[in-house]
Amino acid sequence: MSADCPDFDAFERLVTGELSGPESDAISLHASTCAECGRRLGAVRENLDDVGPLQRVMRRRAAGTDAAGVAAPTQVGPFRIIDEIGRGGMGVVYRAEQANPRRHVAVKLLHPGFGTDGRFERMFQREAHVLARLAHSDIAVVHEAGKAADGRSFLAMELVTGRPLDEYVEHAALPPASKLALFLRICRAVAYAHQRGVIHRDLKPSNVLISDAGEPKVLDFGLAKLLEPDEGETNATVLAEDGRIQGTLPYMSPEQVQGRITEIDVRSDVYSLGVILHELLSGKLPYPIDRRRLADSARTICEAPPQRLTGVDGSLRVEAEAIIRKAMEKEPDCRYSSAAAMADDIHRLLTGQPILARPPTFSYQFRKLVGRHRIAALATTAALILLVGLSVYMSILYAEARSNLIRATKAEALANDEAARARHEADVSGQIRDFLVGIFRVSDPDVGRGGTVTARELLDRAAENVERQMSANPLLKAELIDVIGDVYASLGLYEEGEKHLRRAYDARRSLIPDSLELAATATSLGEVDKRLGRLDAANEELQLAMSIMRRHRGREDLHVMGLLRSLAEVQADRGDAAGAEATMREMVALLRTDPSGRYALPGALNALAGMLADREAFAEGIPFLREAIEASREMHLTVREMLLDKLEGNVAWLLANAGELDEAEEKAERVLKGRRLRLPEMHPDIATPLVTMALIQLRRGKPEAAERFLREALAIRELRLAANHPDIAETQGLLGQALLEQSRLDEAESMLLASYRIFAKEPERNGIPVARAADRLAACCAKAGRSEEAGRWQRIAAGESPPSGLSATLEIDTGESPASTGRDTKRPGER
Amino acid sequence: MEWLTTSTILASLRDFNNQAAWDRFVGRFRIPITRFAQSVGLTEIDSDDVAQETLVAFVEQYRRGDFDRERGRLSQWIFGIAYRKALHERRNKLRRPAELGSAAGHEPDRVDDSDRLSAIWDREWEENVLAQCLDQVQREVKPQTFRAFELVVREALPAARVAEMLGVEIKLVYNAKHRILQRVRELRAEYESLP
Lengths: 831, 195
Known about the structure:
The complex is a heterodimer.
Chain A: H1 8-15, H2 21-33, H3 35-66, E1 75-76, E2 79-87, E3 91-98, E4 103-110, H4 119-132, E5 142-147, E6 153-158, E7 162-164, H5 165-172, H6 176-195, E8 198-199, E9 208-211, E10 216-218, E11 225-226, H7 254-257, H8 266-282, H9 294-303, H10 314-327, H11 339-350, H12 365-380, H13 383-413, H14 418-440, H15 455-469, H16 474-490, H17 494-511, H18 516-531, H19 535-552, H20 558-573, H21 577-593, H22 601-614, H23 618-632, H24 637-658, H25 661-678, H26 684-699, H27 703-720, H28 726-741, H29 745-760, H30 767-783, H31 787-797, H32 806-814, H33 818-821
Chain B: H1 6-12, H2 19-39, H3 44-64, H4 74-92, H5 114-140, H6 143-154, H7 159-166, H8 170-191
């Protein structure tokens, strides 16, 4: 390349045809003689081919994360945007330049999708207010807050160039003592905020930046809760005033996870600091949190002890672990009372003084044994085996709980013989222990093959061991077979699971009929049979389990609730709608009275409303959905947003059906807008609010508007659903109605017939839709002046003629009447 | 973050204790799977499950030596797994309440012609590759260079306008555009390059 060589711009203009004449010729000639420029010209041609796909990707990403496809601004308030440096749930953070004083700042701009109800905007404004009160060298300073030209709120703060805490520590390869010293500063910064009445509530490594000089800065007090309201601010105490829970799951305390908002205080931050310290020292979270399995993760946070600290040696490990455990106690009262107290203990540790936190104790040896073996399995097997190990582990804990039940039952029988009971318990627990050790030994590299063990091998070994070791104890054998069956089923091996569960079921029916253990096996077996489509067997097993549970346990028991849900599903699948509705009503009644049932209540209410809708009791279903919406507000943010979307969509649909059009339209529009933004194009979930909107338009007497919604919904459903899916028929029926109301009779009839044909394939299941479709066809024929056909459809709609109508449909379709062709419209076997 | 070729990432997965390798692997391949699963009608949560299961299954197969490059490209291999997992997950949904809340559920039995799904997969895979290459380039170049690229490619603004906005010479805007396009092309070639 020389100074005479053209630049990229010249080559691009050449390729795109912007240049012509002598200038174009000169560049072409040059490229043919200069090897480097020849290559560059070729590269420009290829590059331009890539622009389209790259533009699509960049726009899709921008749309996905900005929630509105808004391009990065060039100016926000007095700040000139340089580039984007981060994104969060609330907004985008840009590096920007301020003219006066001249400096670089971080500008946090609220997502345009937020703030529609003012909640996010209030939170954002409050962040500025809260931060303005904090002046600490290790907390990022706020410079300014305001509104951008497009109305979005922004916050300008100190620009910290550096890395998030976890990344910094990994990169810098700090020794444990240096990590502790760094953590101590963070702890003290948080303590400073606590002393000024500010709780962070979302402490995590990404909210702590470490500058290039190694200085920590705590960021993002956006979720902070003001302990003491300022003058004139009456409701500043709770940012999450509507009960919304905020935070990042792995760092959230049990009280945050459980939504106990009134219990969130500085000790919640202490908990998060404990998690951060664990991660800082060991490089791992203290629990195996899977962010996608919220319920399991929440349970882990609330129940499981943190894993042992690795990556630190000697006495430092013991004491650091003690500090972490104290910070991460499940009960806030057992934690450090403040971040300052925790900082003091860290300081003691670093200066060789005795710490206040006491080493924890492990209360249950059995659990410890299993825990150790699970870790052994982890070290030697693949990720799949980890999952299996966890499944087995959970099943064993379950078995442990069940064996307690067995012991309780036995204790009753042996009430007068304490010695015998003690011997029995020792015997049972010893046998279970040996059995477990036998299974897990396969994952011990010293005993096993040292290679990968498959899930199936682990389970098959367990099944074999049961036969060999437990033949003398049929009750215990049934117990373990039941556990093994459960594990097979949990892995999706339903046939295998069913085989084992049935053996346990048969054994328990003969050995301990009318026992809770039999009920438990019957429940598991019923679930598996349900998944295998053996509905009658499932119904029988679940009914048996239900009758035992009702006799033995309180009706509020969670097991009873789960059972009721399964039973309702099986009843509905078997076509027993009345039975399913009664069961679901019973379940809803139980969930309402049990505080621990609140997470299941919205789903149950939704299911009940759906059942009512199935029999067109729309107005009756609406209060249930409203209750579900209220109940779901107590749930975790992530779950709640999804649930609320569904519930709002459903209530809109019921409202539309019940004639409450204004409220229905407002809700349906909101749901539709949200789904269009969030879901891929042509996603079937978009069709649902489209149909609701159409229904509303029809009811308002606007068939043209309804038609537009329905055409889009039908296109989606035809693309995504099986040809005879009832949702397609439903859409066709409504579209037929919209066309009928526009007097486009031929089009209407064809659409209505298509709808009718689908519903009529299963007349028993689709009684109401068949009747409605026939009714519409009657109206269509009547409007077309074909009164005889109209009458025939009316008879079908009224149930006076057989509803099958498949042949009738064909006849009408071809314009021939049944009488003229001599064909019978009735189903075979009917008179 | 250091840019690694797919070969390197896969090779490091052979070490069972290498959590960072797993994280990188998930970071690289999760998104196209979740998007694909959403395209066949699964919810966001279910799609994440499908992605997790698919990646675990792939790693298992890879460690066993089942993945044979001669038998197909990496993307097609992962597609095969994701396809089965997504359909299985959808079948599983039969036992869950459908959106409109029937206890029995009315989870649709959707039509899936494999050509259509294959096309969806190819598109998602391609976009994921490009997105990751772009992320990497963004880490490599100066913020202003990338901003120029964004404005000229994503926003399709004329180079002269971008130069004016950023206060730079127009030549620099073209340079930024083509240097990044070229670098994306190089990274893309590395992306699926397997030994």
